[in-house]
Amino acid sequence: MAGKIAALAQIADLDLKLLKLFKTVVECGGFAAAETELNISRSTISIHMSKLEARLGLSLCQRGRSGFVLSEEGAAVYQAVNRLLEQIEDFRSQLNGMHVQLAGELRILTSDSVLLDPRCPLTPALGEFARQAPKVRLALDIEAMGEIERRVLAEEIHLGVIPFHRELDGLDYLPLYQEQCYLYCGADHPLFAEHDDARLTARLADYPLAHAELQTHPEISRQLAGFRREGKAYYYESRAALLLSGAYLGFLPDQFAAPYVAAGRLRTLLPQQHHYRLGMVAISKRHARVHRPRDQFLALLRAQLARQGGH
Prior knowledge:
Layout: H1 2-9, H2 16-28, H3 31-38, H4 42-56, E1 61-62, E2 69-70, H5 72-100, E3 104-110, H6 122-132, E4 136-142, H7 145-153, E5 159-163, E6 171-186, H8 197-203, E7 208-211, H9 218-224, E8 228-232, H10 236-244, E9 249-253, H11 254-262, E10 266-268, E11 275-285, H12 292-308
């Protein structure tokens, strides 16, 4: 009996196809009857059965002129196969149920006006996630990017969306889209009516610049060099307010500034010379605790990027 138990314990390592074939043969009452059910020849069934017996080290049945008869070992294996297949089905059902019953909270922070940019895949992904996981409570807010990085690393939030400005150990980065930034001034600024590029270039250093006061990547640092960085305004809305006051110059993303430009309240200055790109990324903690709503949302975000042709 100990030998039988040891042999049956090997079932977990066997090819499930062979076990299912054996189950069908038993339930059909023999090789001949199983031919139609399995849609393979009797000789092929015999080969598979021999392979299964060899792998188990057991004789499962007698076949011949006297007909198909299960051995004692074969009957025990048949019962074990039924239990195994039932457990596999239970496991599959539980997994499916887990996907359907996502619950808890998904906390996301974005930097500034990311969600208003039509190129950002976050908004459609949020809509799809809400439909797929209605029991998950979404918490979405805006924060400075340094704070977003800190809170993702501390696992206080699950996902952040920021301009890519550095790569930190412990974070994964998913590129989303590119943001183009230009230099602007307001309609009441002395340079608004100046259209001579040479005079504009010469006069830029005469006026204060509103900026985020962050240590950023080299391209932005080069663009800020030579300006009088006297106005601190991290968020785009507050920076735009300083520009609209007529007292400051400043860089803004083109999508954010477009309505003000169309209304004649802002003007782009020397766009061929003064511009830089921001790569927007979604950040999540590498090796974070398991959190299925976050993983599901990231999968939806990647699918949305694929639909937009970005990945």
